[in-house]
Amino acid sequence: MTYRRAAIPALAGALLLTALLWWAGASVDALHLRGTTEALGGRMTADLQNWLTPWSYDPPDAVRFGTGALGDIGDPASADPGRYLSLYGTGMQIRFAAVAAFFLPGALLLVRALPPVNGRTPVTLLAVWAWGLVAGTLAVTVSAPWLIAAQGHGGYRLLPQLASVSSAGRQIVVVTALVSAAVTVLTARITAKGTEPPPLNDAPARAARLAATAGTAVVAFSSVVLSHQSVAASVQTASLPGRLLSEPGDLLRQWLLLGGWSGPAAGQTGHWFLYRLADALLLAVVWWALRRLPVLLTRATGTAMVAGTVCATVVGLLANQLLQAAVTGADSGMRWGWQHLSGSLGHGVPAALTWGVAAGLTAVVTLRLTGGRPGNDGPAVPPPAPAPAEPSLRPAG
Q: In this predicted structure, what is the pLDDT of residue 205?
């Protein structure tokens, strides 16, 4: 698929994702209507408000009324309330613009490298969905400094605040990104009509398996080693010299840890294996995706492999969280399983982005060293056979 054909569905998905997130943020006021709590329940209303507030233009009370008592020295409300409100508005404008800016090039690359034709439609849908989560996370992170400064104490515990703000609003992005991905893939199928569907590549099986194993080992380093309780505690309590880098533990944990090797505090050994089964599912998804990417990609370039690996890591992370929520619900009832899912859904996307890039680069290098040669347009075409020689008309002898 050409860039011109792929740009239409990518642009449609970017605009729809931005519009859905804006609409979701504008719907926060509906949760304050009379009877909402009785209709949805207190827990559901609180969860929805927590999901939607990070995408709302309505500033929190800390920005609107200040962080201290009115009239105190240095209080934002008494000093210059408009200044902090404008900071908050600027941060939200950057957030929504960044969602479209990050989603558009990634969706363009994925739709062109994984066109939804010739059996690739489910893979394309999952990849664009995962990239929507990445775009939402990056947009929240980029706009976080303005929202922190709008609260009037941006210099206090900057890195922990950045980690907290960057992880907000991820649950609603999971839902809106899925809708946007469906529209993107449907539009891509329409624009792809009339073109010859690209065939599946013929990648060397041994090279693809070695590349998948090497890339999965990189992801396993975060999911198994760094996420172990003792190692994760060391990451959480890390400190570096300097005033601004005195407490990087929360931020490092968010960008390096894909999960946590923790389980039920008490119970049978089988429960512990159920929790570890979710980690195995994450690694299985990553390995299968890396094994199939050289075959599914129309052109297995390094950029396409890295983007596909990031999306595969995010999809595996979501599968991990859904399975853990199901195990929690089976152990403690569906109510606690829902609460676990609402709190963990979409968590770990920054780490998936970090280790997905590292795993993709590792897989590309492994493919290149073992003869997979990413970057070929497809399987090698054998040279044409030489034409048979014409019979000689000269008499023998």
A: 86
The whole-model pTM stands at 0.85
Helix intervals (H) in 74-157: 76-79, 81-113, 121-150
Can you read off the two tokens belonging to residue 53?
Answer: 């507030």
Asked if 193 contacts 149 with a C-beta cutoff of 8 angstroms, the reply is no
Quick check: 392 pLDDT over 60?
no
CA atoms within 13 A on the CB side of 140: 27
Tell me the HSE value of 252 on the side-chain side, using a 13 A CA sphere. 17
Nearest to 315 by CA among 181, 159, 115: 181
Cβ atoms of residues 203 and 266 within 8 Å: no
Share the mean pLDDT of the chain. 82
56 vs 171: CA distance, rounded Å: 14
Classify residue 200 by its DSSP letter.
Answer: P
User: What is the spatial distance between Cα 200 and Cα 202, in angstroms, rounded to a whole number?
Assistant: 7
Phi/psi at 228 (nearest 5 deg)? -65, 150
Residue 334 and residue 59: Cα distance in Å, rounded?
34
